[in-house]
């Protein structure tokens, strides 16, 4: 059997990054995790990195802006996966990935690069409203750099991370289920797609050595988790035995709420409102068919037992 490809994870202590490290180890890949000197006194990051080491990962020290160090780190891997943070804070962290692309170009050995996307397909979000469009502009900029450099790649469109979108019944500004009333977007009947973050990581690692995913976008569409907001609310009401008061919000009312959000102090929520608008009013996750030159993860990997949202929400009772 071919040797398992060596995986380098950049952003490995992050929310999805840590799950990608664990999935890489669980699927038997020699796993390297970038350890950035800048983490300084962030003891949680260091302890997480040391826990990865205990689980068999190798820590590779380099800063993102240390080009020789980053080239040396990349040269030790066959596959590089970036899980750098998104631009939901006015940080443009995603642009730091261009330094990673430069290192991959110079190292010349990488068989597959997975950039940090893991959400809406940026190619299908060129119409996105400001300021949330920044997420997709930055991700498309990186795609252009990857493709101009002819770096073999796979783009992962993971739809909605369950913890951020589902137990809160798709409410913003909270991660917990509402106790009495729930804001419903429009009539609540727009289909979205919710994916357990551990499953996002499992499918990502499944895809890295698969010729069927080379230079393609892979959508994660677990059939049971293609749900409207009304479906999610009904699931929670059944689990909890409580009926919630529904308050229906029109698209105009929802977008108008942005003027009450201070752009400088609360950029993440301004970005969030536009993301939520595209997801729950426009239906951007489900209003298209997957093309011939794209693929869907649960069809490629039917052996993966993905987590349903009924199962996912039980812990919140
Ligand atoms: P995090 O905010 O958890 O950050 C991930 C990592 O980015 C950090 O752990 C850190 O790596 C690295 N990082 C952050 N700032 C810097 C910096 N200044 N210099 C170098 N490295 C830095 O990211 P998420 O997991 O929330 O997001 C990852 C991807 O997932 C993004 O593309 C985002 O758009 C997407 N996403 C999708 C969601 C969905 O529902 N589909 C929801 C949330 C995010 P290190 O570990 O080295 O410290
Ligand atoms: C579904 O695809 C994505 C989702 C994506 O491609 C990029 C980012 C996201 C998330 C963001 C992650 O930080 O959507 C919006 C934002 C999550 C967010 C949740 C923002 C503001 C909130 O108040 C919020 O409450 C749960």
Automatic annotation (TrEMBL):
Domain of life, per lineage: Eukaryota
Keyword terms of this UniProt record: NADP, Oxidoreductase
Entry's Gene Ontology molecular function annotations: pinoresinol reductase activity
Domain NmrA-like residues, every copy: 3-313
Family the entry assigns: Belongs to the NmrA-type oxidoreductase family. Isoflavone reductase subfamily.
Gene3D superfamilies hit by this protein: NAD(P)-binding Rossmann-like Domain (3.40.50.720), UDP-galactose 4-epimerase, domain 1 (3.90.25.10)
One Pfam family linked to the record: NmrA
Source organism of this protein record: Digitaria exilis
Annotated GO biological process: lignan biosynthetic process
InterPro entries for the chain: NAD(P)-bd_dom_sf, NmrA-like, NmrA-type/Isoflavone_red_sf, PCBER-like
Protein name as annotated: NmrA-like domain-containing protein
């Amino acid at each position: 059997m071919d040797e398992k490809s060596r995986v380098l994870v950049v952003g490995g202590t992050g929310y999805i990054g840590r799950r990608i490290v664990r999935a890489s180890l669980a699927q038997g890949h020699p796993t390297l995790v970038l350890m950035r000197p800048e983490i300084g006194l962030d003891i949680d990051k260091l302890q997480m990195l040391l826990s990865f080491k205990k689980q068999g990962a190798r820590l590779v020290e380099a800063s993102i802006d240390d080009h020789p160090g980053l080239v040396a780190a990349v040269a030790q891997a066959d596959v590089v996966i970036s899980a750098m943070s998104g631009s939901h804070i006015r940080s443009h962290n995603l642009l730091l990935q261009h330094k990673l692309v430069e290192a991959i170009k110079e190292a010349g050995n990488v068989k597959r690069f997975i950039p940090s996307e893991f959400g809406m397909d940026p190619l299908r979000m060129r119409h996105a409203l400001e300021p949330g469009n920044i997420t997709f502009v930055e991700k498309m900029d990186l795609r252009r750099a990857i493709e101009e450099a002819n770096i073999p790649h796979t783009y992962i469109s993971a739809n909605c991370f369950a913890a951020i979108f589902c137990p809160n019944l798709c409410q913003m500004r909270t991660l917990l289920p509402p106790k009495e009333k729930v804001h419903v977007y429009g009539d609540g009947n727009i289909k979205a797609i919710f994916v357990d973050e551990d499953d996002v990581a499992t499918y990502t690692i499944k895809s890295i050595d698969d010729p069927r995913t080379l230079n393609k976008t892979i959508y994660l569409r677990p059939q049971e988790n293609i749900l409207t907001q009304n479906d999610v609310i009904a699931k929670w009401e059944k689990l909890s035995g409580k009926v919630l008061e529904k308050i229906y919000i029109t698209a105009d009312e929802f977008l108008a709420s942005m003027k009450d959000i201070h752009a400088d102090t609360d950029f993440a929520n301004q970005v969030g409102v536009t993301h939520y608008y595209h997801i729950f009013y426009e239906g951007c996750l489900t209003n298209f068919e997957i093309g011939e030159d794209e693929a869907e993860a649960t069809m490629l990997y039917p052996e993966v037992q993905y987590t349903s949202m009924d199962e996912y929400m039980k812990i919140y009772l």
